[in-house]
Amino acid sequence: MKLFTWATSPWGQSVPIHIAWGLVWVAAIAGLFFMIVHSLYLIVVKPPKRFANRKAEASAAAIPERVPRHTLTARLFHWIMAASMITLLITAFLPKLGIQFNWVLWHWIAGLVLTASVLFHIVHASFFLDFWSIWPDMTDLRDAMNRTRRFFGKDAPLPSRFAKYPLENKLYHGVVMLAGLAVIATGLFMMKRVQTGILVRNPYLFSDMTWGLMYVLHGLAGVGFVALTLMHVYMGVRPEKFPITKSMIFGWMSRDFYLEEHDTTRWAVKGTGSKAKQGYAASDGD
Amino acid sequence: MAVIRDVMPAFDLLQPDTAADAQKLLEQNGEDAWVMAGGLDSMDWLKDRIKKPKVLVDLSGVEELKGIRATGDGVEIGAMTTLTEIANHPAIQKDYSVLSQAVALVASPQIRNQGTLGGNVSQDARCWYYRDGWPCYRAGGNICYADTPVGRNREHAIFGANRCVAVHPSDSAPALIALDAKFVIRTSQGERMVDAEDYFVGPEMDITRLNILKPGDLLTTIRIPVTWAGAKFYFEKVRDRNVWDFPLMNVASAIKVSGGTIRDIRIAVNAVAPRPMRLKAVEDATRGKAANADTGEMAGKLAVQGAVPLQYNGYKIPLMRNLVKRAIVSGQEAA
Lengths: 286, 335
Fold this sequence. Notes:
The structure holds two protein chains of two kinds. Chain A is mostly helical.
């Protein structure tokens, strides 16, 4: 299967015009393959959930029953971004599968919503949340190494509990960030190629080759999101991950889950004010 | 414009005798098949070597697709009936003259002798960037060469543009919409019938087609109901060369007038959008009003609301306003 579709420009130059739409199926199958392999791994191998002992046990009594994880603002951002992303995927790929509708209008509107929400997120996460909580740190890398060594039967210390986000979440965020920035940057330029009523149409902004590569990058990131979205939804509905999903809806996770999965020193739940006494506590909540 | 290269690419020529066989062949060959009616649009594509079908299904031998027949509820025109035959047919001239006027203004006498009604409504867009084989949106690419700051778009759309700004070039289409015609399509699932206006699709739905025909589908018949027989008709085509040209714009209307008042009306224009446009807002606004210049003025202004001209086709707005006005005023003579 060819990865890209090529065309001859009016000047005789061979230029890529978009990805081969068969890649949509490749991405969908990759996402389904991940689900099957991951499910089989958990069913067949049954890996024990083992963490190293805490260096300093937090007093369970000092931790509220409902540990705040995501602020309302952060949750709103997440679900607005999710809605725009689903809209973008539907409007991008259903027409390629033969379901015809006026997709361009909804696609660029959803794209602008995604762009606005991501810009907001960058500012919000940089200045109002714990910016570094979503980035892998040395402990994550050391624990990942230890987990890998133990998986292959080698001696290695038990990994520590997670900080606010497990390494997998952080890596997923990184991949989504790269793919997201790719579709947003290329998509904003591509708005110069269609009638939006916002920008004056000018397809000669770049050379045919540059445009072609832009369309290819947009398409590759787009089909990447098909696989990434399938994986994300799958992980979100897995029973052992469901408390994390619930926290993205209600904003909090239970004290038991917090103590079971998270290192209280790496992700400290702060505050013992009046809210904490009622069952809530302050946190960075991103 | 494209350079005719004379030698067509090789293809298998299939010449069925019946509509059933023709549809079966189209179904069997799917995307690889090309349907040829009169061959006027087809020969351009094939000789320019821009379309290279593996199979060409020539409908010229399918007799059941030819001819004009009276039915209990109007007339039925086979898709392979020539435009000349329709233009000269007494029943069409008497009861549905908007159609005979429209097809009589298609291209030249030779082309009308060869061209068919099915071919006229199913022909492809005439945008020269597209016809020249450039990789535009309609050709499966990612650009519209006509809608750029320097694109030549004098003949292009002022309505309904969606990436592609090509217009539908048919003269018979607006007349058939005005007559509330039904298009009969033979498909692998059987026969289906659609309203004339629903036969055409814009680029927002499918940018590579101008109509709803999918691979394997065959337009067999166009039925014109008796509903509008004998109404006051109007057809006007504006073109650069009056002896032989595609429309810059055309308008077709059917009006039932009683006591100087418009009792009912259907009006459509073409070459202003990627599909023929039925002007429902104009119909609603003029129904019950006097068929006079004031109503025509109002209708013309209403018709062009929402028009978005390109760099070189701003003239189409006053042109459309005046054509619609004249179509409405034409009802005055019957009052």
